[in-house]
């Protein structure tokens, strides 16, 4: 089982990001954080890097369930979704597979929550 779901789509980076954000909303997620790796690496290291963003997505009801089952699970939240420029006009979108990451915790109470969140994130990728 892979630790992520991924799909490469054609289009403009900003438009794909907007579509991903809207698809996340449809599945009950909000984007809590956005890290622009390209901009950060330019600013901090003065290096050029392809367009690459990390979106920290959160589905509050599932986050609450996970926190009730495991108080340190916040170390693994939110669910990250990345967009990266693959080639000109091709953007790879990937989302974490929470089932894989939650398995490392070893708490069976997280299994159901992780499976449900995994299904939702996989839907987002599949709908692109």
From TrEMBL:
<protein>
    <submittedName>
        <fullName>Uncharacterized protein (DUF302 family)</fullName>
    </submittedName>
</protein>
<dbReference type="InterPro" id="IPR005180">
    <property type="entry name" value="DUF302"/>
</dbReference>
<dbReference type="InterPro" id="IPR016796">
    <property type="entry name" value="UCP021774"/>
</dbReference>
<dbReference type="InterPro" id="IPR035923">
    <property type="entry name" value="TT1751-like_sf"/>
</dbReference>
<feature type="domain" description="DUF302">
    <location>
        <begin position="35"/>
        <end position="98"/>
    </location>
</feature>
<dbReference type="Pfam" id="PF03625">
    <property type="entry name" value="DUF302"/>
</dbReference>
């Amino acid at each position: 089982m892979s630790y992520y779901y991924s799909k490469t789509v054609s289009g403009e980076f900003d438009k794909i990001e907007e579509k991903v954000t809207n698809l996340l909303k449809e599945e009950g997620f909000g984007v809590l954080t956005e890290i622009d790796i390209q901009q950060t690496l330019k600013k901090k290291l003065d290096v050029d890097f392809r367009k690459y963003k990390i979106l920290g997505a959160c589905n509050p009801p599932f986050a609450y369930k996970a926190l009730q089952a495991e108080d340190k699970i916040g170390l693994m939240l939110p669910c990250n979704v990345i967009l990266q420029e693959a080639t000109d006009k091709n953007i790879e979108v990937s989302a974490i597979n929470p089932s894989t990451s939650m398995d490392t915790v070893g708490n069976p109470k997280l299994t159901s929550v992780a499976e449900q969140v995994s299904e939702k994130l996989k839907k987002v990728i599949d709908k692109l």
